[in-house]
Design the sequence.
C-alpha cells in the first residue's frame, strides 16, 4: 500500500522455491571392511567370525550387496563390527564389477582387511591390482591402514607355498600385518579377530573428505533483472520468447486473474526495457510473446496488453455461458427484473403489487376530493379534539 494507492487490489504469488535433485548415499559404519577379489572367501570369513548368514557359493560375485556382522567369537574380538563388500576386479575404478557401487561404505571403516585367495593363479598380482584400483577410485581409501590375510591355507597346494607367499605379501604390502588363515575351517580366525580389534581400537579418528555442497540459499529474485535474452526463430515469424531468471520468476509470481496484476506485469516489462527491445527487434502488434509457460499477445502502447491466452479463452467461455443463460431467461414466463426508472420494481415483490394493477383500485382514489393545500384557508382541524396515543 502506498500513498497513491491506499486500497490496492493486487498481491503477488509466493516465490517458487528452489528445486534440486539430490543423490543421498547411505554409508554403513563398521570397524573393519573386507576387500578382495571375487570368490576370495570374504563372505565365508564373515560367517565364521559372526552370526551373519551371507550367501556363500563356489562362483564369483556371490555377494551383490554389503553384509554386516558383529564378531562373536572369543573375548578379544567380541563386538567388532565387520563389513563385507562385493569383490573388486580390474577396472573397478572405471565402473567394472559390483564393488565400486559399495566402496563408499568402507570409507567409514577404521581398518581394511585385504583377503587374498591363496589358490588363485597370481595371488600377489591380485593384491597389487586391488590396491591400484583403490588408489584410482579414492586416494583416501588407499591411505587407510590395511591388514592382509592369506586365505584357504587348508588346501594342500596353498599350504605348501604358504611361507613363500607370506614373504612376498609382506614385501609388496610394506608392513608385517600379514596373517595366514582358513575361513572354512576357522583356523586362526579367532586370533585374527583379536588382533583386528586391538589394531582398530588404536587407530585415531580420521575426518572423512568434505562432501560436495549445494548452495540452496540463493533466491530467485536475486538474479540480475537485466540478464535476459529475446529469442526468435525465422521459421516461426511473429513469435518471441523472453528468457531470463528474473523475468520468469516475476511471471510466475503474477496473479494473472487480476487485471491490476496483469497491468503491473506490463509496466515491469516497460521498466526493464523489454517492450522497447521487442519493438526494436521488429515485434508487431498481435505477435505472440512467451515468458516461461505464459503466452500473450504483444500490444505496444496499451496500458493492459499482457493478457495470457488462457485467460482470454476463459473469458470467451464465460461470455458464451452468459449468452446461453440469457436465452433461457427469455423463455421464462415470469416477470423479468427491470430498473425502477424503466418501469420496474427494484427489490419489491411483484406479487404483492398485483392488486394495484387492477383498474377499480385506482378508481376509488379518483373519487376522493382533495383540497388545495396551498390554499391559506385550508384547515386540518376536523372538529375532533381526540388525542391519538400509542397503545
Sequence:
Amino acid at each position: 500500500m502506498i500513498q497513491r494507492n491506499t486500497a490496492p487490489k493486487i498481491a503477488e504469488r509466493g516465490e517458487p522455491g528452489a528445486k534440486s535433485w539430490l543423490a543421498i548415499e547411505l554409508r554403513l559404519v563398521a570397524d573393519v571392511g573386507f576387500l578382495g577379489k571375487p570368490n576370495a572367501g570374504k563372505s565365508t570369513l564373515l560367517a565364521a567370525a559372526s552370526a551373519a548368514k551371507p550367501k556363500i557359493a563356489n562362483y564369483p560375485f556371490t555377494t551383490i550387496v554389503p553384509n554386516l556382522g558383529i564378531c562373536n567369537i572369543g573375548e578379544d574380538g567380541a563386538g567388532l563390527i565387520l563389513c563385507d563388500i562385493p569383490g573388486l576386479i580390474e577396472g573397478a575404478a572405471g565402473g567394472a564389477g559390483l564393488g565400486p557401487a559399495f566402496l563408499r561404505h568402507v570409507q567409514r571403516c577404521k581398518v581394511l582387511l585385504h583377503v587374498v585367495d591363496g589358490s588363485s593363479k597370481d595371488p600377489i598380482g591380485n593384491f597389487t591390482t586391488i590396491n591400484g584400483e583403490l588408489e584410482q577410485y579414492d586416494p583416501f581409501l588407499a591411505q587407510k591402514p590395511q591388514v592382509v590375510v592369506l586365505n584357504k591355507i587348508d588346501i594342500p597346494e596353498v599350504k605348501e607355498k604358504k611361507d613363500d607367499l607370506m614373504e612376498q605379501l609382506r614385501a609388496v604390502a610394506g608392513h608385517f600385518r600379514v596373517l595366514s588363515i582358513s575361513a572354512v575351517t576357522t583356523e586362526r580366525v579367532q586370533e585374527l579377530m583379536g588382533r583386528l580389534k586391538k589394531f582398530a581400537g588404536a587407530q585415531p579418528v580420521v575426518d572423512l573428505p568434505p562432501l560436495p555442497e549445494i548452495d540452496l540459499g540463493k533466491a530467485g529474485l536475486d538474479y540480475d533483472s537485466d540478464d535476459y535474452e529475446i529469442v526468435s526463430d525465422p521459421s516461426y515469424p511473429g513469435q518471441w520468447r523472453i528468457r531470463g531468471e528474473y523475468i520468469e520468476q516475476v511471471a510466475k509470481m503474477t496473479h494473472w486473474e487480476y487485471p491490476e496484476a496483469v497491468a503491473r506485469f506490463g509496466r515491469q516489462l516497460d521498466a526493464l526495457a523489454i517492450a522497447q527491445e521487442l519493438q526494436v527487434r521488429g515485434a508487431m502488434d498481435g505477435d505472440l510473446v512467451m515468458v516461461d509457460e505464459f503466452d500473450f499477445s504483444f500490444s505496444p502502447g496499451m496500458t493492459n496488453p499482457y493478457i495470457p491466452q488462457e485467460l482470454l479463452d476463459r473469458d470467451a467461455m464465460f461470455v458464451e455461458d452468459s449468452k446461453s443463460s440469457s436465452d433461457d431467461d427469455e423463455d421464462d414466463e415470469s416477470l423479468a427484473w427491470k430498473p425502477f426508472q424503466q418501469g420496474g420494481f427494484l427489490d419489491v415483490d411483484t406479487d404483492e403489487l398485483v392488486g394495484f394493477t387492477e383498474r377499480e383500485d385506482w378508481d376509488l382514489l379518483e373519487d376522493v376530493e382533495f383540497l388545495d393545500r396551498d390554499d391559506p384557508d385550508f384547515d386540518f382541524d376536523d372538529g375532533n379534539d381526540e388525542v391519538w396515543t400509542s397503545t
Notes: Residues 344-348 have pLDDT under 50 and may be disordered.
